[in-house]
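Tutorial handout. Part one gives the primary structure; part two gives the three-dimensional structure as tokens.
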Amino acid sequence: MSLVSSFIFILLSCQNAPQPLPYLGVKENPEDKPAIPDYHFIDQLNRPVTPQTFKDKVYLTDFFFTSCPTICPIVTGQMLRIYEHFNNDNRVAFLSHSIDTRHDSVPRLKAYADKLHINDDKWRFVTGKKDDIFSISKSYLSIVLEDPNTPGGFNHSGYIILVDKDRHIRAFCNGTDPKDVDKFIPKIQQLLDSE
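Part two.
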């Protein structure tokens, strides 16, 4: 009887094992795992930010602007919640891209970051050339558009995106929905446990 019990336990354990996180993105070749291309931005301390900045780290990323009157404060609040959850884990970093490159200067990004009381080495708020920011948003499967008919002048998604150490998108959530973020946090831990 104990042999049968052991077999049932093993069978149930295997069924409950979490599935590996998928690789998300547009594939040019079915065997490829799409990766975020190279980039070069400047952060809130006027430091360069490139893929090398996040070497050996998973990172969470989003798109925002400091004067956003709609979803950005909500998404930033959820990013902050995730930041606080993983604050002591050096394997996790954060990257927020400003889509208002005309107004979000380095000092303005620094003031924004300071209000959040974050570690500037763990969470980078970046700016750069508008075309570069808008282009990289597509690689992250995120929507970023200028729209004069939208409050704040930009239409953008509120996704928070999880990127692995090899620059692959592995998961995302709706950063305006705390319940979706609740489901997302274990996926971050799952990725960390598998790396």
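Part three, for discussion. The radius of gyration is 19 Å. The chain has one domain: 24-194.
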